[in-house]
Design a protein that fits this description.
This protein is of the alpha/beta class and 304 residues long. The two termini are 24 Å apart. It binds zinc ion. Zinc ion (ZN) binds next to loops.
Length: 304
Amino acid sequence: MADDDIPFNRNFPLKPGVVEEARPGVRRVLCDNPSPFTFSGTVSYIVGKGKVAIIDPGPDNEAHASALLEAVRGETVTHIVVTHTHRDHSPNTARIKAATGATVYAEGPHRASRPRYESEKHNPESGADREFRPDVQVKSGDIIEGAGWKLEAVPTPGHTANHMAFAWDARKISFVGDHVMGWSTSIVAPPDGSMVDYMASLDRLAGRGEELYFSGHGPEIPDGPRYVRFLIRHRQAREASILHRLAKGAADIPTMVRAIYIGIDPRLMTAAGYSVLAHLEDLVARGMVATDGDPVIGGTYRLV
Ligand SMILES: [Zn+2]
């Protein structure tokens, strides 16, 4: 099953290091870190004018830090806001903080969505920034306010346990990090990620009033809640595909990936396996699927 049920938009001509005013009071700068996981690279945002916030300073990348600082030359960076602690989003925080003295806001340090099972090895693909510590830990509904802008913290766990979106509700804008992206679905890889949390976070976003979403990668999404409903239906369809495959007999995760992800980029096979695991973990918890021992990447699964 392909992802063609979702109205993706991969038209994003922004070049690395170029400062673009996407909307009044919202500038964006692309980092030069393209990959199958990051699309054209990480997008950092500058919110406000004069006294500004920088959202997601990006990976450990000196050129990108310089581009951001150049973009705000003559202005004051009062806040650094981080959506989540993946290595393509948070490590450059240290550089921007050192240069500006801004206060760093985020949900908290990196953590997994659940404890690691004994049989589980460390997932090297997780790409977590375990060094990151915010100055201020934000929780649901907290307001981060600056000169002419105001962001509300909206918990959106699932892609990571500490993922936060930041809603500028007067402008009907939300900065949604990697929780919702216009170019692709998000990776939900246990134990860092959780499918149950991810689906609940999609529901939470779709129920809010913000319409225009700015993501950590790729173009903005003009009708965010409608797009989120496509994502929800897509995951429900994927779950149905897994159950359909298991109806033919017990299977391991590579077998399910080959049956479900036709024509997938081979570099994304591992990530696809973890997405299937995320669904299986949820199905096991709901008593619909069984496995021997804990639901892990190497397990064999069958219908109950
Ligand atoms: Zn991420």
